[in-house]
Design goal:
Blueprint: H1 5-30, H2 37-43, H3 48-54, H4 58-62, H5 66-78, H6 86-104, H7 108-119, H8 121-133, H9 135-146, H10 153-171, H11 175-193
Helix pairs in contact: 1-2, 5-6, 5-9, 6-10, 6-11, 7-8, 9-10, 10-11
Length: 197
């Protein structure tokens, strides 16, 4: 008898979460470079093969919410309020993620986590590429919203600039002002090409 899809999906999600939790605990306790994927698999009581079915690399274990980030970015475009421009929706989404980061920063483990990412070149690079990897999906969502072809350059440019603006916003002493300035620039250029979106 086949296991119901819902149950199978729940079990996969539990295994994935178990791996992510074990990885985070070990990385924070011992340091990222001192922990191997076998250590994580053993701590989660699964095989290394199972680990790689859920996470394509050791770095991916640190950023287990990668898919959720992409889904949220696409949803910011598709689920924006009627009459709200795409740049405005993206600005608000990025500010919301900044607010969530600020809340997480109150947790001492988050500070250790952030330091680990910042101090580990492989993780720092992965974090940057993780965010910009979502560019294609975001560009496609924008193109879909305005009725443009998937390979539309203006949609790809807006996606790229919006994702890169996040870095400027994150580093600024006043994130809201930085977001308003950066997205005002994007908004004016976008409105010229797509006035109703």
């Amino acid at each position: 008898m086949t296991e119901p899809t819902g149950r199978r999906e729940r079990k996969k999600a539990q295994t994935r979460q178990s791996l992510a939790n074990a990885a985070l605990r070990l990385f924070l306790e011992r340091g990222y470079d001192q922990v191997g994927v076998k250590d994580v698999a053993d701590a989660a009581d699964v095989s290394v093969t199972t680990l790689f079915k859920h996470f394509p690399s050791k770095e991916a274990l640190v950023f287990d919410q990668d898919d959720d980030l992409e889904t949220a970015l696409v949803a910011a475009v598709h689920n924006r309020a009627r009459g709200q421009s795409i740049p405005h929706a993206l600005r608000e989404h990025i500010l919301l993620t900044q607010t969530q980061l600020a809340v997480n920063a109150a947790d001492p483990r988050f500070t250790v986590f952030a330091r680990m990412v910042q101090d580990t070149p492989a993780l720092r690079d992965y974090a940057h590429h993780m965010w910009t990897r979502h560019e294609t999906a975001l560009a496609r969502a924008i193109a879909n919203a305005v009725g443009a072809p998937d390979d539309d350059t203006t949609c790809a440019a807006l996606a790229r600039f919006a994702l890169e603006a996040r870095i400027l916003i994150q580093r600024h002493a006043d994130p809201r002002r930085a977001a308003e300035d950066a997205f005002a620039l994007l908004e004016h250029g976008w409105a010229t090409l797509h006035p109703s979106h």
